[in-house]
Amino acid sequence: MITLKILSWEDRFEKITNITDTKFLPFSDKIEIEEYIANDLILKQRVILKLIKIDEDPDIVSLAQYLWHYEISLNQRASNNSKGNSLLKLLHAQRDEEKGVYVIVTEYSGPSIRDLLMVHDESEDSIFFNNFLRTSDKKKILWEAMYKLAEGLYALHFSGLIHRNISLDTIYFDSEAYQQGEKEIFKIGDFNWSIYLCSLSNVFTDDLSSELIKDNYHFFRAPECLPSTLLEFETSGETYQSDLFSLGLVISFLILEIEDIEKYTNSQLKDRPKLYEEIYIMLENYQGYPLEKEILLKLVCVDVEERFQNINDLMNRMRELLNIFKHNFIEESRLPINFNLERNSPLLRQISNILNISIDA
Questions:
Q1: How would you classify the pairing of strands 186-188 and 171-173?
Q2: What are 75-98's pLDDT values in tens digits?
């Protein structure tokens, strides 16, 4: 008789690196959340293992359960869209009452853009990312990849979801996809954390929900999402256009090759308008295609009315830009290629036969 052994999540997912402290988790001051890069011993691939610890406080238990259940349902809704290939997929979820945790496992595609821009090491991911930054095809490859990210946003928005947390920390570089020549070299992750913010107020007390939202005012959030009491202008509240602003900032950091990242990411709320304007001016002076500049300026415009109205408008203009690259982009010459061939080389004989000339010729 054959007995099948069902692996527990602890046996299936072998922890490699604890990444809890390397990224901002909006709810970590309320409930204990741990994140790991792990090996999935069944699927034979790396994954992100997220553990939401169950607290004795009934309110915090309800919050942990809500986060776990909501993340699963939202991930499934977004991933069911055919254009959601640039979203990191949910692979496994379970509740382990004995261990006191809610378990969520998603795909792992590689390090975040921020990690690669900030940490210069000799890892394979860093090497391929730096190759991407230096390649003569960088601009074309970048916009093709950003179009795929826009498709991922389309999948979210079509499902009625706003990401709310697009940044250098939540977009990841897939070095394997880059090596294979695929267009989806960047993936969007962590959208789940920030999506909760829109509905927490309907589930928990005003004090708790407002405090959670307050902790998520990172630099890449659009100006209209920030509290007007802390800024010099009135804010209108969050919309789908807010995601477009955030995506525009990410593209701008890559296009402009901004080096002092922490100047922006560690900035105070009161300094945000000045920094947004600084990036806008840099884009105005950027020597790129006119349509490329138009797209970037419309993405990072502080005035919501001047921004793209929706993700479809952005994707239409991006397709026009990609057509320009397709017809006008000139690759630098890769000839001559010098390599040694023996006279009896099979390749040389094949060339000789095809051209119907002697090897000496």
A1: antiparallel
A2: 777 777 778 788 888 899 898 988
